[in-house]
Design a protein that fits this description.
- The chain is of the alpha+beta class.
- It folds into two domains: 192 residues, Fructose-1,6-Bisphosphatase, subunit A, domain 1 (Fructose-1,6-Bisphosphatase, Chain A, domain 1, 2-Layer Sandwich); 116 residues, D-Maltodextrin-Binding Protein, domain 2, CATH 3.40.190.80.
- It contains eight helices and 15 strands.
- An eight-stranded mixed sheet has the order 4-3-5-6-7-8-9-10, sandwiched between helices. The protein has a five-stranded mixed sheet with strand order 12-11-13-15-14, with helices on both faces. A two-stranded antiparallel ribbon has the order 1-2.
- Helix 1 runs antiparallel to helix 2 and helix 5 runs parallel beside helix 6.
Length: 331
Amino acid sequence: MKARAPAALPVVASLKTESVQSLENRIQRIIPAMQQSAERLRQLQHGDLQVSSKSNPRDLVTRADRESEELLIAAIQSDFPQDSILAEESGATAAISHNTSENHGSRSEGKEVSNMGFAGSEDSEKGTPAAKNTSPGESRYQWVLDPLDGTVNYTHGSPQYAISAGLMEQDQCVAGAILHPATGDLYTAIAGKGAFKNGKPIHVSSRDPLSQCLVVTGFPYSRQEFLETLLTGIKLTLQNARGLRRTGACCVDLTYLAEGIFDAHYEFFLKPWDTAAATCIVREAGGSVTNLAGDEYVPGMTLLLASNGSIQNELREVLKPLQELMPDSTL
């Protein structure tokens, strides 16, 4: 598989050395908390999960979701109290401090944290001041957390689930880490620095055209309301691609795309915690992430289209009829 240079994001040009070090520091320090969450998820999976539903019977939440999220939030608030948080189960949490020093007491001090492929080491930012807030009361960085992506899979005993921690700067996904608890595989990326799996560089596939490609998709919880659109997307994909898959976990889909297993992914109505880390990882692996119109995807858009880049325009053209089925939305 031919390696490609990471795709550039508009925000990359503004990432000075201090910013890169700040993001590296955050990703390195969240990894132990993600590993602790993963261990807890493995322990709980086949026990009493205390399953309940949210928006509808397909939209589940469990004891495991909540405990994993609590571990991640506690780690962030301990190490980076100046950062705000958006988490799937607890919602938005403002920064609890505007301390400009990032070298305060940390859970990670005295512990060995491996360098997951970034240019800097675990100690690269000691003594480096934190980024100041962009405005009074507003954090520069917001953590976007999915403590358990693939909850339905998880409750049925499937290994296809993940933990995701992304970092947003305004509307840009600038860094992220995704951990697959069942395998221990860790995917990381920082804008402009490449994407990694277990510390080794990864790249999207070079397969082209779409007829030679494997596409993966997902379905929203409100699928009955949009069934015609979803079925049309399946039909169009099956008519034009080598195959279509569904894992049931967006973060799994997009990390597999980043390492070249899948060649494309499309999905409606994703939440920020589904995409914040994953879009950065895909782009840094050389992939493309847009909406149907070809605009750079940002969280909140109706439809995400991601691919190895080579087939992005063809994928958009194939799925263009979906816009006619949803005239009131910009896809």
